[in-house]
Amino acid sequence: MIVDQIVKPDFEALESALSESQGLDKVLVVFATCSVEWRGNRNGSIGTGQRIILCKPDGAISVHRPNWARAIARQGVNSTLELYPLETGFLLYASKSKGKHTIHIHLQEVPLVVVYSATDKAEPEHRETEEEMHAFIQSNPETLEDGLRILHHEHPIDVGTIDFVGADRSGNRVIIEVKTQYAKLSHVDQLQRYVKHYNRTDNASVRGLLVAPEFGEKTKRELRESGLEKCRLNEFQHQDLGPNQSSFERWQ
Amino acid sequence: MIVDQIVKPDFEALESALSESQGLDKVLVVFATCSVEWRGNRNGSIGTGQRIILCKPDGAISVHRPNWARAIARQGVNSTLELYPLETGFLLYASKSKGKHTIHIHLQEVPLVVVYSATDKAEPEHRETEEEMHAFIQSNPETLEDGLRILHHEHPIDVGTIDFVGADRSGNRVIIEVKTQYAKLSHVDQLQRYVKHYNRTDNASVRGLLVAPEFGEKTKRELRESGLEKCRLNEFQHQDLGPNQSSFERWQ
């Protein structure tokens, strides 16, 4: 891991750092006063301010303000990054998908560029709460309703994949959609679509059940009006995790 | 704009840089070999790799790998950032919403920390393509259908806001939902919800029309089966924008 620092780079220094970083394992971190304009899925611009620009070797670029976690402008891998001289500074230009996505960054002052030779071969492990909820429901269907049995998990139909197909005590089919977040109107829509398209192989009637940790008033009303049901499953609220409660055992 | 560089900080140096940055206009950019674990809306972890961590004065934190534009872990403003000593390095711990959202970062090697005194008072201007599409439809409703008139723009009803309510040549009401992206099944659901809940003040019948640049086969079929209609409006594909085609006039 090598960290090179270029203080107040001129055009040549910044240009060569940028072109050398592309394709190699070098990230360019540009500390700059700049204005930015972006076009593509979102269009917008922002005037002059002090920001941090990450230029990654795979062509990804993101512009960070000194506040908020999210980048103000961001473009994915395989962007082309180029530098042009301007009368007052430099233009850092990122272009992707034949110019459909572009970011123009007017670099007015660049006190520091850090060239970071970094490699990261680790694979992230996503342990979504959704998976945990699914495993719980699979093992404990009676938590949703007495006598409920699970027939299929992640059952594909033509208009999506049903989380669970169950059978209730009276032999009705139950289409179950599971949400880890506050239930929204769009979740009701989705459940309704599944119920509508579910192909009954027998004469059993079909119920729709939305499972979520919380339901708002509008969602409850929409469920009632659509003849659908709800089940509040709040076991999966996240618990308080202190600094010593990481699952990385080796940490302490 | 002041950029301070701390090469290979020890615990005290990193701890005081972190605590001094919070609340002041200082961003901490930490270059580190680290492993990370995150909990909250998403749960996951990643083993050891070389990464860049942005700690912002408003409490926002994001961990960036040397590839992809998106952060691997991110937490919003008002997080509490703390540093703890470990046998092998430091634990950078971010906690938000009473521990519901946490990030544990095991810093194993920290070759450089940059303390960036940055201010950014600029307000971003979002010129969403959606706004442009709305303005276009408002001015040119006949592009969607001969004789169509717009009655309301952004018409609130109980279950959302209808983009446009129009009247067709035969006096029917037309509920119009506008999408800037490829039309999806969930957009059909949304339109169907609006049509269902739209309160007719007269005896006119109600049609539903989904407007988007592209439609897939499943979406088309679902629209047909739901008795809804579609209109392809591809004028709003993004044009090719070169480095000299920014709208910042002062740039060249």
From TrEMBL, chains A, B:
Keyword Hydrolase: yes
Alphabetical keyword list: Cytoplasm, DNA-binding, Endonuclease, Hydrolase, Nuclease
Sequence ranges assigned to domain Endonuclease NucS N-terminal PH-like in this UniProt record: 26-122
Family matches, as InterPro entries: Endonuclease_NucS, NucS_C, NucS_N, NucS_N_sf, tRNA_endonuc-like_dom_sf
Domain called Endonuclease NucS C-terminal: residue spans: 130-235
Highest taxon of the lineage: Archaea
GO molecular function: DNA binding; endonuclease activity; hydrolase activity
Protein's UniProt name: Endonuclease NucS
